[in-house]
Design a protein that fits this description.
Blueprint (H helix, E strand, L loop, with lengths): L8 H7 L3 E6 L13 H17 L2 E2 L22 H17 L4 E6 L6 H9 L3 E4 L2 H11 L13 H10 L21 H4 L18 H15 L3 H4 L2
Parallel strand pairs: 1-2, 1-3, 3-4
Helix pairs in contact: 2-6, 2-8, 5-8, 6-8
Length: 232
């Protein structure tokens, strides 16, 4: 289970990291079988592995973000895009003032579109990971049967990662929770509610812990190509 980083100020001083890693999750419905914190748990799982492998400074997660497309379901809490931008930019500024010049944003929620603009504006001091294509490549490498579009919420991918990292948080019933979202043309305008009654949009019945571990391993490998722009 993900825990908050245990660093003391002396730990950070002695390591003098040049790169920090910020997990960005959400607090939103993930159907009846996954917790509201699913995206945060996934972002933390990816971020912890990156930080450990490369000696980066792992920051505590941002746990509430832009989840307005899930507002029809109880438990979903959102902030505005402007608030999320401000939080991430303020964190980056604070890090630079303390000598940490580079920031990796590990995004666990697909609805945080504005993070791409934050990284663009940072002009080389930030990396956003995983990108859409990196998620798809990790699915393929791990033998996940579904793609990003057909399995976009609380489905095979997310359920597999939680079965691998936090199995005690996955509720019974996911094997019977499949829901095909169909044509999502108006998702941004109407939210997810018109496309799924349960909140699931994908095939959690196909999930397994083995696939979850394989996805995380594939993302570890995918991150290697970002090291050159981080000066690592």
């Amino acid at each position: 289970m993900t825990t908050l980083p245990p660093d003391t100020t002396a730990d950070v001083r002695d390591r003098a990291p040049a790169v920090a890693v910020l997990p960005v999750g959400s607090l939103e419905q993930h159907g009846p079988h996954l917790p509201l914190t699913t995206d945060t748990l996934i972002a933390c799982a990816v971020a912890e592995r990156i930080a450990r492998a490369h000696g980066f400074w792992l920051l505590p997660p941002v746990t509430v973000s832009c989840s307005h497309e899930h507002s029809a379901w109880p438990g979903t809490v959102s902030v505005s895009a402007g608030t999320l931008i401000a939080v991430v930019q303020d964190i980056a500024t604070s890090l630079r003032e303390s000598g940490v010049a580079r920031l990796v944003l590990v995004n666990g929620h697909g609805g945080n579109h504005v993070l791409a603009n934050v990284v663009q504006a940072a002009r080389g001091s930030m990396v956003l990971f995983p990108a859409y294509g990196e998620w798809q490549a990790a699915r393929t490498a791990a033998g996940v049967a579904t793609g990003n579009d057909e399995d976009m919420h609380a489905g095979e991918l997310e359920t597999s990662i939680l079965l691998a990292t936090s199995p005690h948080l996955v509720r019974d019933g996911y094997a019977d929770a499949d829901a095909d979202p169909g044509d999502l043309t108006h998702l941004l305008t109407l939210g997810l509610a018109p496309y799924t009654e349960s909140g699931v949009a994908g095939r959690p019945s196909l999930a397994s812990a083995e696939k979850g571990h394989a996805v995380l391993a594939a993302l570890d490998r995918a991150f290697e190509r970002h090291l050159s722009v981080l000066g690592s």
